[in-house]
Structure formats: structure tokens, C-alpha cells
Amino acid sequence: MDSGLLCPARVPPSWPPSLQLLLGEPAGELWSAVLGPLSGRLRTLAATSVHLRPDGTATVRHTALVDWADGRATREHLVAATGSAIPAGAAVVEGAAGGTPVAVGLWRWPLDPALPGLAWATSAAGVAERLGALGLHVPGPRLRLRSYRPGRRAVVEVTSPAGRWFLKVVRPAAVADLVRRHAALAPALPVAPVLAHTTDGVVVLPALLGTPLRAALAGDPRQLPGPEALEALLDRLPEVAPRRGRGAPGDPMPAVRAHASVLGTVCPALAPRLDRLTAAVAAGAGRHPVVPVHGDLYEAQLLVEAGSVVGLLDVDTTGPGARIDDWATLLGHLVLLEHLTGDPAPIAAYRDRVERLLAGRWPGGELAARVAGVLVGLATGPFRVQQAGWAQATEARLALAERWATASAG
């Protein structure tokens, strides 16, 4: 294998052993050792996503081209995880980085040991058979993977002449909570009802009508709901129990510190700026009452039509929290979208409408401080997806956070 195809730049020695192993040349040796006994020879290997935790453990997805002894060449999607990120059931081997031994859990797509339902949910034949057994007629399904977080969750879109569905694949232990959450929210909100669910972690949801707010922002402004409609939607949120393991409701600082730690690890030169940002968010965030919140509200989670909100997606995060954080999350995503799009004017205009609705609602720049915290989290994106020029893109996003932190101080 040409190691240059794996790692065109040397992994900085300051990075933790997990990244030294999974992003550097040792990754090729690791996967070659695994594939060799299966009569596979690794031709190329490239990282496509990296999830780094503050404790230095990591999960890395690779795309690989593998030559097999029978003459076939296949493109494989491979996942490696270290430390606390290794799910039960993964094949565990020992690797080494800089003389430091590192335990690594390995699997090939779609055989995710934490998501046993993923294998059939990504097979057209499997989907037709399993959904049929659940009472859903899905002839000739076409599948599209919408998202995948190794060891955590995946979403598969299913299209058929009979309709359209989404398969949400989660850890089996999380199914009951997700089903209860949808049942609690559906009577009051435009949330998809659960059509069926399986013991191996697949929840079946119907596709909802409407246009994603993100697409509407770039299209017909008549489709856009006023910010007052978003507020009415949030006001209808019923009380639901928090997810297990969720931190203190309404406190943005654990997430901000975690994201700043990850960014400081991969971009050490940004550490002083990150320290100042974290301090500014902590000083300006304020304390807020705990109420029902969506928990991850942004433009891709909202479906709209003719000025109304007709769909609310990804309700896994609903629970107790601070309402200001739903608004801060929406504003943070709009700020970033303005920065990334070629035509920021419609997005800026909508953001301005949201800010006018919220003007004077909270004292002392608390909203701006929390928007800055959201932008710190979004600054992890370029590295996570291994974007070309990710370091420069990270710094640009951090600069957006600094502007909002400055506004909060002012």
C-alpha cells in the first residue's frame, strides 16, 4: 500500500496516541494485519470522519480499496475505535503509537457491533423482508444512508412505490426511550409517529411532508415561518424525562469545555483563544429556568410549508433544559450557514427576524454568549469530517464565535 495515500501529512506528535495510530501510517499496518488473514490486501486507506473525545479516545471511519485473492477489488468502509469508544462485541486488537500500546476495536460496515439492526437496515432485501414482517408493505425499496455515527446511531431513508420511510438505527437499549419520546410529543407537535420498532434497535418512522427550513432559506421566502411560529412550536413542548446520562439541564459549559478541549488538542495554537472564549461564555451565559426544550434546534430539524412548521425532526434530545439554548442553537447554525453559503442575504435577513423577536428578552448579552458557545461546538466540524484545509476552516469558525463573545461582553 502507498502510505502517502493514507496520510499525506505527518500526524503532529502532540496529538494523542489514538490519533497517532488511527490517522497515521500505523493505521495501514493495523488494517493490513486484520485483512491479511481474510485474503485481503489493502490498496488505499483514507480517513473520512474522526470523532475525538476530550479524554483522547477516538472513533475513525476509513474508506479503503481492498484487493482480494479471488481477483475482486472492493471499496470497504472500516471503523476503528479506541478506549472508552470501543463498543461491546467489537474485535479488539493491540496497536502501538510512539511506543504506547493502544487497544483498538475494529469492524467493517455495516456490521457495527453496537447497532445490530444496521446490517439488515442497509440491505434492500433485508428491509423488504423485515418491514413486511412488521406489517409494512415496501416493494422494491431503494435505500439512502442519511447519517451514520459509528457505535451510536444511523438513519436510512427508504423509498418505494408504496411510500417513503426513515429507519432510525440506535443501540437496542435506547429503543424504548425513543419510542416513548415520540409517543409523548406526537399529540402536541408535528412529530412522526412510530410505525414499528424492533428489538435489535430499528425504529420505523414515516416521512413527513414539507421542505427543510434550510432549503426554504435559499428558495421561496413565502415558505418561511415567522420566528413567532417557532416560538409557538417550542411553547407546545410537553415535559419528557431527560435522556440517561445527560448533564445538568440548562448549563452549556460542559459541552463548550469538551469541544474546546478537542479543538485545543488538534489545533494547539488556538488554545489561548479557546481559553478566552470558554471564559467569556461562562461569564456571560447566565442562569435560566429549566423548561421543556428540543435540545438541538436548527434549520435542518424543521420542515416548513406556506409559512407554517409542519415537521419537527430528531426529537432524541428533547427534555428539560434552558429555552435560551434552543434559540442559541438555531442562531449559531444560521450564523455558520451565512458564512458558508454563496448568498448569505436571505439567511441573514431571517436571523435578523429571530434576533428582533428575542431582543431584550434576556439581560447582559446572555444569548450572544450562548451563541458563541454553540459556534465553538460547530468549529469541530471541519476536523470531524476531515475537510480539506480543516485547520483554516476551524479557525474561521472560531473567529465567528469570538465575534459573538465580544458582543456578549459589550
Largest sheet: 5 strands, antiparallel
Q: Give me the Rg, rounded.
A: 22 Å
Structural class: alpha+beta
Overall helicity: 25-40%
Question: What is the number of E strands?
Answer: 15
What letter string, H or E per element, gives the SSE order? HHHEEEEEHHEEEHEEEHHHHEEEEHHHHH
Q: What is the fold named in CATH at topology level of the largest domain?
A: Aminoglycoside 3'-phosphotransferase, Chain: A, domain 2
Count of spatially separate domains: 3
Unreliable sequence segments:
1-9
Quaternary structure of the protein: single chain
Helical stretch tally: 15
How far is the N terminus from the C terminus? 55 Å
* Overall outline: globular
| Architecture (CATH level 2) name of the largest domain | Alpha-Beta Complex
CATH superfamily of the largest domain: Aminoglycoside phosphotransferase (APH), C-terminal lobe
CATH class of the largest domain: Alpha Beta
Order of strands, widest sheet = 1-2-3-5-4
Beta strand %: 15-25%
Could you tell me the mean pLDDT? 94
